[in-house]
Design goal:
The chain is α+β, with helices and mostly antiparallel strands. Helix content is about 50%, strand content about 15%. The chain contains 8 helices and 7 strands; from the N terminus they run H-E-E-H-E-E-H-E-E-E-H-H-H-H-H. It has a 3-stranded antiparallel beta sheet. A hairpin with a 5-residue loop joins strand 6 (about 135-145) and strand 7 (about 150-155). It is flat, with a radius of gyration of 25 Å. The N and C termini lie far apart (about 80 Å).
Length: about 260
């Protein structure tokens, strides 16, 4: 009896997942489009199903077939660290076959072999950078503990991530909140700013400075809208700079050291 119930439960789960996969897509005009493959875009179950499937298709396969190759995967993005171009090319072909056997296919426009160029690897290759989890990995100047400069293959916040943060800050519409105080703005947005700092300053933190300065620019625009005597940009910048020097802990990026100019 227990075995029958277990099989019935498994059949119900399979049927439920199948309904999720085949549910029609509703367009903005109210019409529906039938779907024949993939998971629903934006569906709450889509990431779960993708992770379950890719764990079998990619994770287990890499562990069993290529135990000597380090790899990482987050959602549908993955990287593998090969010791040579020959090994990378062989792995790519094997992964193509593996995905096809499992009813999937690699996005070849986004899948590429990257040469991790630095002072020890000085060869030439078409691709010497890649993006992963909001970071761009590429050759960058670095300084060792003796003060000598060298080239290392390092991550830093990607251009795409910078663009997304600027868009988010614009959507705050600070210039349309003259009824708020600086403390109000700090209370409302500091958690987001601190989140960006926590995530993007682990590596090559200077790359995020221009994004943090953009937040200061938006705060200056807020000052110009709020105070009639500070309409001129320079006067507004100087006023905000003096406030920042007096209270460096008010905003998370001020505490981090990115202050507006005090004049």
């Amino acid at each position: 009896m227990a075995l029958v119930k277990k099989h019935a439960k498994e059949a119900w789960v399979v049927l439920y997942i199948e309904r999720w996969l085949k549910v029609p897509f509703r367009n903005e005009d109210g019409t529906t489009t039938e779907r024949t493959s993939g998971t629903p875009q934006g569906g709450v179950i889509s990431p779960i199903l993708a992770n379950l499937f890719l764990h079998y298709v990619f994770d287990d396969y890499m562990v069993k077939e290529f135990p000597s190759i380090p790899w990482a995967r987050y959602a549908d993005d993955g990287i593998a660290h090969c010791v040579s171009q020959k090994q990378a090319e062989y792995l790519l072909e094997q992964l193509k076959e593996r995905f096809v056997k499992c009813g999937l296919e690699l996005n070849l426009e986004k899948t590429k072999i990257v040469y991790c160029k630095d002072d020890d690897r000085k060869g030439d290759h078409d691709n010497t950078s890649f993006d992963f989890l909001g970071y761009t990995f590429r050759p960058r100047h670095a300084k060792n503990k003796y003060g000598n400069y060298f080239t290392s293959f390092l991550p830093a916040i990607s251009a795409k991530s910078k663009k997304a943060i600027r868009k988010k800050v614009r959507n705050w519409k600070l210039q349309l909140k003259p009824d708020k105080s600086l403390q109000d703005l700090a209370n409302r947005f500091n958690s987001q700013i601190q989140g960006w700092l926590n995530y993007y300053t682990h590596f090559y933190k200077s790359e995020i400075y221009d994004v943090l300065r953009y937040i200061n620019i938006c705060l200056v625009n807020w000052v110009r809208r709020k105070f009639k005597k500070l309409k001129a940009r320079r006067r507004a910048e100087h006023w905000l700079g003096r406030v920042a020097k007096r209270d460096t802990k008010l905003f998370a990026h001020w505490k981090f050291g990115i202050l507006p100019a005090a004049g």
